[in-house]
Request: fold
Amino acid sequence: MDSLRQKLENQGLVNVNYMVVNHQGMQAQRLHSMLTTRLSSSIKLYKQGDQDADVWQALNGEKDDFLVYDRSGRRHWQKC
Reply:
C-alpha cells in the first residue's frame, strides 16, 4: 500500500488521505496487529468492531478494493 502511495505522490497526487479498512471477520481481526506493523505511519488503519456497521457493505466494496473519493464524497474509482 505504501508503494502505491509513493507512486501516486510521484505523479503529483499530494494531500491525499489513505486508509486501510480491516475486515470484521475473526481471521482479519487476529492479523490486525501484524497489518499495523506493515503500514507506514502515513496510512491509517481502521479496525472494524464486530458490533459496528460493516464499512465494506456500506461502501459497496469488497476485500482488496481501492475506493477513491474526492473532497465532495463522490466515488471516482474502484479496483476489484
